[in-house]
Amino acid sequence: MFELKTITLFALTAFAEIIGCYLPYLWLKQGKSIFLLIPATISLTLFVWLLSLHPAASGRVYAAYGGMYVFVSLLWLWIVDGIKPVSTDIIGGLIVLLGMLVIILGSKST
Predict the structure, then answer these.
(1) What average pLDDT score do residues 21-40 get?
(2) Three-class DSSP labels, the chain
(3) Which pTM does this prediction carry?
(4) If you average pLDDT over residues 95-109, what whole number do you get?
């Protein structure tokens, strides 16, 4: 159960970070409203808060979180940007998820 909570928390954290970075991108690169910076700030604040909820040492959390971030970024590419991931994207995404699981499961003994 601990692992499922951790993975869910990582996914929520990744979405908060990606949204917090995507909204300023829309303003800077696509000429959207500067007011997008308000929800972007809220989203990045949520991202930092979510990272602080993990009980493990921060370096280990960031390392494991990186795997989920890559995976969620590929989902974002597909769902939001409308670009279907190619086979190497999928294989790479699965590899980083496996790496995340190795870190999470391995850290239970320390």
Answers:
(1) 96
(2) CHHHHHHHHHHHHHHHHHHHHHHHHHHHHHCCCHHHHHHHHHHHHHHHHHHHCCCCCHHHHHHHHHHHHHHHHHHHHHHCCCCCCCHHHHHHHHHHHHHHHHHHHHHHHC
(3) 0.81
(4) 83
